[in-house]
Design a protein that fits this description.
By secondary structure, the chain is an alpha+beta fold. The protein has a single domain, classed as Aminopeptidase. The longest helix is centred in the first third of the chain and has 20 residues. The protein is globular and about 40 Å long. The mean pLDDT is 88.
Length: 104
């Protein structure tokens, strides 16, 4: 079963790695080359500790989820998992957790 913990500053590199593995192959056909330095800079600017959590499977980092809370709703900003954790229903479980509560 998946769980989450609040992200901390030391999670920046892991979150970027997960983002790259999830998005690189989709990004390149649409926007061109994946430029790691530029992408990391953008990632660092958007890595908000108030909204980001690290997804854990058996206590091990498995992905990243970001949920922004508003007065009337929540917004799922990202939900990325490492390849070995995909297609197992984990994303569905995390989405359900986000829907059920305003704080992961």
């Amino acid at each position: 079963m998946a769980s989450t913990r609040p992200a901390v500053g030391d999670d920046l590199d892991f979150a970027f790695h997960v983002t790259e593995t999830a998005m690189r192959d989709h990004f390149i056909p649409t926007w061109g080359a994946w430029e790691p330095v530029f992408r990391f800079h953008h990632h660092r600017q958007s890595f908000d500790l108030a909204t980001h959590c690290i997804v854990l499977m058996d206590g091990q980092p498995a992905g990243v989820i970001a949920v922004a809370e508003f007065s009337t709703d929540i917004q799922l900003e990202k939900l990325y998992l490492l390849p070995e954790y995909r297609a197992q229903g984990i994303g569905t479980q995390l989405f359900g957790m986000a829907q059920a509560q305003t704080s992961l």
